[in-house]
Specification:
This protein has 362 residues and is α+β, with helices and mostly antiparallel strands. The protein contains 10 helices and 19 strands. The radius of gyration is 23 Å and the shape is elongated.
Length: 362
Amino acid sequence: MNTERRLTLLRSRFDEESPVAFVFSDPTNIAYLTGFEGVFDGEDAHAAVVTREAAWLFTDSRYGEALTNAAKGTEWHVRVVRENLYITMCGELTGMGVDSIALESSAPHGRFRFVSREFQGNVQAVDQMVEEMRQVKESDEIERITRAQEFAEAAFEHALTILRAGVRELDAALEIEFHMRRAGSDGVAFSPIVASGPNSSLPHARASHRVIESGDFVTVDLGARVGGYCSDMARTVVVGQASERHREIYEVVRAANEAGLSAVRPGLQGSSIDRAARAVIEDAGFGEYFGHGLGHGVGMDVHELPSISPRGTKSVREGAVITIEPGVYVPGFGGVRIEDLVCVGADGAQVLSRSPKDLIEL
């Protein structure tokens, strides 16, 4: 990972912003800026401080040894704090003559108030600075996402051998997770979704004790994790023989998926890509059954910038990895979601998903 480039890019913002130091507390943003691997576990126990001249990482004793070893050969200075991390940080910054800081606006409100009270200088908020940087993936990041996608694809293929009438959603989801971990995935990007029958009309359904029945739509949504990076995909199948209604809904979603993929271009607003797919569903008379955005960025988090939705007003950048996941969800009957993982290339969508999109009857 080219973390020197990341710090250089971050420091270029000092020409635009007034603070003397940027302060970051989001664990994923800190992991991105430092490039340290195998240390951060999502615990909210660190603060990163970057000035024009130096970079400090404040942490507690649980991570002191691991972070000190990881920082060797880098410009990061690790400070192991025995008392309150933010009181110590504020005191040291003041002692260094820093009189103005910018804290990321994603910090909890209580933390922002606490730092504002403790720091002897000006404190302001900065919005999504690192998140914007994370949108454009380096080649090594794309390789990790691609590998995570391969684990997810293999797990879906395995799922096709176990999804049948009489199987509980929960058992299928556990088997999918076990398959990814056993194959070498570092973990899951999120708890796998196996949603059958009427549950499939719930976009974020949790795998339940419901027993799959013949005639059910079954949506499988899953993602693996490799080297700190996620994948994300979804397919919908029918257990038993598909009815005409199954086929109608499925083909509308598949057409919307293809329209969304065709619309992907760097420089387009996320809302424009969303509109291309949403129009297909609306024209088919199912507009009221597609309520969520078409997609989102994927990287160190499974949901990150950019937003591919009616609210996606920012341009999608070349090098971003996004999902294209239209759906139709009919309450009481079921739903279909077809989700592909895509790298935004100079000429359009480079689809990382390989699983077939023909309607599968099991």
